[in-house]
Design a protein that fits this description.
MCM_dom; four-stranded mixed β-sheet; about 40% helix; alpha/beta; Mg_chelatse_chII-like_cat_dom; ATP-binding; Ribosomal Protein S5, domain 2; 3 domains; Rossmann fold; elongated; single chain; about 500 residues
Length: about 500
C-alpha cells in the first residue's frame, strides 16, 4: 500500500473538526512534504516524525513522501498531528497492518525517541469522537482528561512502538478506564472572616443569585479574604458545567485539569494583565481569564489599577456570558459566564473615611481615582459593599469567626434549587419578562422602586439588576413575592 489515511482532529475554539491525514509514497528523489495549511509547528513535525520512526526500530522510507492534511482550508497548528503522520507513513510503507484505522482517531506529539507527549484539546477531541462513536488514541499523559468525557472510548499509548505493536496484534493496550476526578484541597473557609457582618451578608446574596460584587475599603480590611471565600459557598458544578470547565483548562495544556473538577474556578489575574490575557486573543485566539473563570469567580483586586481597556472589555461578557473573538479569517466564541468580584480602595492612599488613619488625598485626587471606573461597568455590578476596618480587640478575640462555609453553602444550595424550580436559571440570568413574573410586585413595591429609581438616577439596567438582587433576598427568606423590605435592602447595595 502506497496510500494510507489516518483520522485525527484539529482544534478550533472548543470544537474539534475532523482531519484526514493522507500519506502517499511515490518514486522519485527522497523528499518529505506536508500540505494542507500547516503552521510552523506542523511543518517542523517532519524531523520529529523521522527521528521517532528510526528510534522506534522502524525503517524510514527513502522515497518521496507527501502528507496531506484535509480539509485544506482548515488551519492546522501544534504537534497533535505527529502521531497520525507517523502512522500514515508506516502504514503506507507496509510496516503496519491496516486493522484499526476506520473507527479510530489519533492525537499526539512525538518526542525524538518515539515517546508520546501530551497535547492540548484532548477533551474537545474526546467529545467529538464519542459523538461519532469512534475510539480516540491519545498519549497516556493526557488520557486522564480525555477519560472524563462520559461514554468516551480512550486508548492511552505511551510511545509509538507500543502503539504499533498493539495495531499489529503483537500486544494489547487495554482501553483506558476513567477514574473519579481527584478533588483538590477544599476552598478557604468563611469562618476565617472576623466581623464584617454586612459584607458576609452581601457575599451570601451574591452566591445565592450569581450576582456581581464590588468590595471597597481601606487596605487590610479583608476584601481579598472575603472574595477568596466565595467559591467555597457556591454549589458544586453540574456535570455539564464541569465538562466545559475541564475543556477550557485542558485547552491550555493542563495535564491535571480533572483535579477538583466539580469545584467552582477562582481566577485572580494581576492588575498588570493585558486585555488579551483577560478576554482571550492571539493570532489563533485562545480563551483568557474570563473564560477560564466560566461557572466560577473572576476576582479583580485593585480594580482601578487595571488599564481602562482591561476594565471595559469585560462589559460584553458580563451581559452575554460569552466572549467572541473575531479575526480576518475566522471568528471564535468561548463561554464566559462568571461572577465578577472586584476590590478597590476608596482613594489613592486608601484611607478615605477610615477612623484610624487620616486621608492624605485631595478631593480632586479622590474624584479622579473614582472616575477610573466607568458608569457602564459600575452599572453591571449588582452589589456595592463597604468593608470597614474592624477593631483590634475583635480581631484578637479567640473564636470570633462567623459561620463556616458548609453552613452557608447549604443555604445557598437551597436558594438555588428554589430558583431552578421556578425559572430554570439563576436570578442573575433572568430576562425582563421573566423577572417581572418572578417578582410579582404589588402597588406599594412598584411605587417604592419608581421613587428610588428617580431619586438615585438608576438606569434601566441598574433597575433590573436591583430587582434581581431583591428576588435573591426574597428567595433567601423563602418568600414567594418580593416585598418592600427586600427592595429596600437591594437598593442599599446600589450605593457606591
Amino acid at each position: 500500500m502506497e496510500l494510507a489515511v489516518i483520522h485525527s482532529r484539529a482544534l478550533s475554539g472548543l470544537s474539534a473538526p475532523p482531519v484526514r491525514v493522507e500519506a502517499h509514497l511515490s518514486n522519485g528523489l527522497p523528499a518529505f512534504n506536508i500540505v494542507g495549511l500547516p503552521e510552523t509547528a506542523v511543518r517542523e513535525s517532519k524531523e520529529r516524525v523521522r527521528s521517532a520512526i528510526i528510534n522506534s526500530h522502524f525503517e524510514f522510507p527513502d522515497r518521496r513522501i507527501t502528507i496531506n492534511l484535509a480539509p485544506a482550508d482548515l488551519p492546522k497548528e501544534g504537534g497533535r498531528f505527529d502521531l497520525p503522520i507517523a502512522l500514515g507513513i508506516l502504514l503506507a510503507s507496509g510496516q503496519l497492518q491496516d486493522q484499526l484505522q476506520t473507527l479510530h482517531e489519533y492525537l499526539g506529539e512525538l518526542a525524538l525517541d518515539g515517546s508520546l507527549c501530551a497535547v492540548p484539546g484532548v477533551v474537545c477531541a474526546a467529545l467529538a469522537a464519542t459523538a461519532c462513536e469512534h475510539t480516540l488514541v491519545v498519549p497516556d499523559s493526557c488520557a486522564g482528561n480525555a477519560g472524563q468525557v462520559p461514554g468516551a472510548r480512550i486508548i492511552a499509548a505511551p510511545d509509538l512502538l507500543s502503539l504499533c505493536a498493539h495495531i499489529n496484534g503483537a500486544e494489547v493496550i487495554s482501553p483506558h478506564r476513567a477514574s473519579a476526578p481527584q478533588e483538590s484541597d477544599s476552598c478557604p473557609d468563611l469562618c476565617d472572616v472576623v466581623g464584617q457582618l454586612s459584607a458576609r451578608r452581601a457575599l451570601e446574596i451574591a452566591a445565592c443569585g450569581a450576582h456581581n460584587l464590588l468590595l471597597s475599603g481601606p487596605p487590610g480590611t479583608g476584601k481579598t479574604l472575603l472574595a477568596s471565600r466565595l467559591p467555597g459557598i457556591l454549589p458544586p458544578l453540574s456535570e455539564e458545567e464541569a465538562l466545559v470547565a475541564l475543556a477550557l483548562r485542558d485547552f491550555h495544556g493542563d495535564e491535571d485539569a480533572a483535579r477538583g473538577a466539580r469545584l467552582r474556578p477562582f481566577r485572580a489575574p494581576h492588575h498588570s494583565a493585558s486585555a488579551a490575557a483577560l478576554i482571550g486573543g492571539g493570532r489563533h485566539p485562545r480563551p483568557g481569564e474570563a473564560s477560564l473563570a466560566h461557572g466560577g469567580v473572576l476576582f479583580l483586586d485593585e480594580l482601578p489599577e487595571f488599564s481602562r481597556p482591561c476594565r471595559e472589555v469585560l462589559r460584553e461578557p458580563l451581559e452575554s456570558g460569552r466572549v467572541t473573538l473575531s479575526r480576518a479569517a475566522h471568528k471564535l466564541s468561548y463561554p464566559a459566564s462568571f461572577q465578577l468580584v472586584a476590590a478597590m480602595n476608596p482613594c489613592p492612599c486608601g484611607y478615605l473615611g477610615d477612623p484610624e488613619r487620616p486621608c492624605r488625598c485631595t478631593p480632586e485626587q479622590v474624584q479622579r481615582y473614582a472616575g477610573r471606573i466607568s458608569g457602564p461597568l459600575l452599572d453591571r455590578i449588582d452589589l456595592h459593599i463597604a468593608v470597614p476596618r474592624q477593631s483590634p480587640g475583635l480581631l484578637l478575640q479567640p473564636g470570633a469567626g462567623g459561620e463556616p462555609s458548609a453552613a452557608v453553602r447549604a443555604r445557598v444550595i437551597q436558594c438555588r434549587e428554589r430558583q431552578l424550580a421556578r425559572q430554570q436559571c439563576t436570578n442573575a440570568a433572568l430576562q425582563s419578562e421573566q423577572l417581572l413574573n418572578a417578582c410579582q410586585l404589588g402597588r406599594a413595591e412598584r411605587t417604592l422602586l419608581e421613587d428610588a429609581a428617580r431619586r438615585m438616577q438608576l438606569s434601566g439596567r441598574a433597575l433590573h439588576r436591583t430587582l434581581r438582587v431583591a428576588r435573591s433576598i426574597a428567595d433567601m427568606a423563602a418568600h414567594a413575592t418580593v416585598t418592600c423590605a427586600h427592595l429596600s435592602e437591594a437598593l442599599g447595595y446600589r450605593t457606591p
